């Protein structure tokens, strides 16, 4: 109990859990992005549900400048629009809806939005719904605050129009509100033509690290996206994170997890598709499955109230900590950093809560569970990774250093969630297309920025990963110096090193002198 009152010590890495920040109107200047990086943001998310390519390109150029000035790596995530239904409010006037009144949803987008009529961007709504169905409308999804989002009940279907009863009074403001129908299938492709256009222009130009595939419903959605990316040059290295937003995605979760590189639990939409009392169960089950598969899991919608306030609610603070204790790799901030008043403070606060939760995380129990789940015989790499973590825990090492070129070894070590940071030294590999030379490694380094406890650094390309001990020693020296400068390694500390020597994988324990 007394430790609760002790002030938290600041370390070089704000937390082992990563923070994904959505960049937008309140967080696109070089100054604010620099502060976000210093506060602990390691992945920048670009949400194409709003804003055009030029707008996002401007933000990204500022991110590059911020990365240069702060010397902090940051990965780029592109979030697709997907089959998102939207109310089109061309005039951008606020629309006040009164409880118990009627409102008509129409696919005729030339109409003006009003309290009696809301034009939408989908022609098949009348065929998808029946009287008694529930439809939710809100800005940037639903904050849970019933003054900015509205619940409608379908009363009747007239041709292409849908007549609804308004269940609660609310004011909708801005040009964009999303529409969500509880447990109703929308017959639209997951990767739309607009998404493909953005990927083949903005995505290719900027070599995006992650694709967040909105509204993933089947493993086929991920396969189609991967097939599309494979034709776009370097984007064949882009990792696909499936965003689970509805019951259909939940029902096919195991197959989707197998196909994707990671999972985003979109709790905003899921909280509407699922009964509220079931949301926590899905979160715990999904995070457990991701952890055992060794794939990154990201939780969204954690501190909504910080969009307008400097402090989270007690429930939100507890929620962030529970996401960490449940095994989440990263916390994704949406509206909080996109249009919130306190983007930097939000990242700082979430980082502090994560760091406190990590101190009480039961690594020992988790390790045993994971080893048991993997079973025997283990693969060669899995055995090395689990042994490196066990050795680090036993000798109380301050850091694990792993040499890797594909990033796989580092991710496997991170899968066992060691209590100390894992420094992943990414050794670039030279490749050629007969016309020019290029190095691999930058993608691999940035893609570990979403994995809990994994901190990448790029090695000098003159040092191959599977080389003589002499060159490895010099790379190791660089890694140790980096650890010392960042304050992770002090004199007399023990360090566990995992590397390849020829065909053999070696785990070394070294103790540092003064």
Automatic annotation (TrEMBL):
Residues 382-501 form the Pyruvate kinase C-terminal domain. Pathway: Carbohydrate degradation; glycolysis; pyruvate from D-glyceraldehyde 3-phosphate: step 5/5. It comes from Acorus calamus. PANTHER family: PYRUVATE KINASE (PTHR11817). Its main location: cytoplasm. It holds the Pfam family PK. It catalyses: pyruvate + ATP = phosphoenolpyruvate + ADP + H(+). Residues 17-347 form the Pyruvate kinase barrel domain. It is an enzyme of class 2 (transferase). This is Pyruvate kinase.
